[in-house]
Structure formats: structure tokens, C-alpha cells
Specification:
The protein is an alpha+beta fold and 74 residues long. The chain has one domain. It contains two helices and four strands. A four-stranded mixed β-sheet has the order 3-1-2-4. Strand 1 and strand 2 form a beta hairpin. The longest helix has 9 residues. It is globular and about 25 Å long.
Length: 74
Amino acid sequence: MDRPARFEHTRFLGDKRTQLVYDLDSWTDGAVIDEIVAADTGLCFGPDTLVEARNRGYTLARPGLRRRHRRPRA
């Protein structure tokens, strides 16, 4: 899957609505990533690691894992 232009230099993309983080190197469902970018609720992490995403309360997304959409706080 190609990375979105806005997040082309990041590996992990977080969704503020669901607190899920997506590994763009291994994620295959492009529709989910396109929805995050279109809704403008994407978040990248610095440093760009899964440990930093978990430190901020995000969980690694797996196929079939769904969460309720909430309004982002920030």
C-alpha cells in the first residue's frame, strides 16, 4: 500500500477517533487509511515507533478490530 502524501515519511499512523495506530508498512486495507486522511484525524508520532504510540495510549490495529468513533479532544 502506498503511504498518503501527508504521512509519506511516517510508518505509524494513529486515528484520534478510535485510538488505534496503523502500521503503514504492513496494513493492506487502503480504505481505512484514506478515511482517516479524509476526516483529518490522523496523527503521526515522534519518534515514529510503536512504543511511542503505546505511550500515548494507542493500540495497534489488527484486521477485524473495530472501535467506536469518538470526537478527538485536540
